Amino acid sequence: AAKDRGKQCMARYEPDMDLHSIEEARLGAQLRHAIDAGEMRLVYQPIVELPHGRIVGVEALVRWQHPQHGVVSPGLFVPVAERNGLIVPLGEWILREACRQAARWRDLPGTRSLRKISVNVSARQLREPDFAATVAGILHETGLEPHRLVVEVTETAVFDGGAALDSVWALHRLGVSIALDDFGTGHSSLGLLRTCPADILKVDKSFVDEVTAGDQDVIAAALIQIASGLHLQATAEGVETADQAEHLHRLGYRFAQGYHFGRPMAAENITELLQAASKAAVPS
Ligand code: C2E
Ligand code: MG
Ligand code: MG
Ligand code: MG
Questions:
Q1: Closest atom, ligand 1, to C-alpha of 74
Q2: Which residue intervals define the domain EAL in the entry (predicted)?
Q3: Per-residue pLDDT tens over the stretch 95-107
């Protein structure tokens, strides 16, 4: 019966899908051109230490400056790039750009609190058999130490094991840190902690949203217990209010990220924040 239902659904959605696939082909073609045309850029969102809010990391997030449509969000074009395979060259560009910027920050005065840069990596990239070798090459080329790089993967990406999980292990052996992004929303969550060499759990915004009056925080509270029991670092994602930050700190969270601390911004703005904080800490 499920099979029949599936067939009916397919039939009903076919006209829509055709329209959609035309749009997708158009977007795909523009995307192919976008990397070479220099329309891609990275923004960086602070990852801070609680309770003081010192910036200890940044997450690189890609933006597409489309000549007609303005800034296109990755939620829209990353899935397209994953389906047509362009995420492989695009992801390589993103990694190189992020590592280059991280090496720059390492060498600038007044930016020492920044220890790590996080880069999102898709399942499609992890399934490339030489992905870890590509990362090693980029680290070598940019002069960035492996321990300064965090690769963010989703549970779903590594859930099936296979080549994606092999890549994660190879990255781990290189000395790159592994973060499980949107943790708690994917397929396997807890079982994955045994098979995947994770260093960081990024606790999904949906659980952080519940941390308000202090009595709705059951999952956020359980996840920090699991993380500390397994000696993993936990980062709360999508923290929007001072109230949430305070509650998360009380639950035991040491790291957080969200609009309350800083929106994704250009590299120069991160530099300014870092240098201003360093001056404030050490008056000269
Ligand atoms: P993500 O890796 O979970 O990134 C966090 C997303 O939440 C970012 O959206 C960020 O701007 C947003 N965010 C951060 N703090 C807050 C907050 O306090 N409130 C709210 N409402 N949102 C917040 P963005 O930049 O649109 O990226 C969306 C997703 O697209 C990312 O989720 C990631 O899965 C994917 N993505 C972004 N950049 C890349 C990339 O370079 N490569 C790959 N493969 N995927 C990327
Ligand atoms: Mg992420
Ligand atoms: Mg996330
Ligand atoms: Mg997310």
A1: 30
A2: 24-278
A3: 999 999 999 999 9
- Tell me how far apart the alpha carbons of residues 62 and 40 are, in angstroms, rounded to a whole number: 7
Distance CA 229, CA 159 (A): 22
Interval between CA 181 and ligand 4 midpoint (Å)? 7
Whether 189 has a pLDDT exceeding 80, the answer reads no
Interval 148-167 mean pLDDT: 93
Write a three-state SS string for 138-206. Answer: HHHHHCCCHHHEEEEEEHHHHHCCHHHHHHHHHHHHHCCEEEEEEECCCCCCCCHHHHCCCCEEEECHH
Who lines ligand 1 at CB under 6 A? 45, 61-62, 73-75, 78, 91, 94, 120-122, 152, 181-182, 238-240, 258-259, 264
- Supply the residue whose CA is at minimum distance from atom 15 of ligand 1: 258
Q: 0.90 exceeded by the pTM?
A: yes
Q: What confidence tier does 126 reach under pLDDT thresholds 50, 70, 90?
A: very high
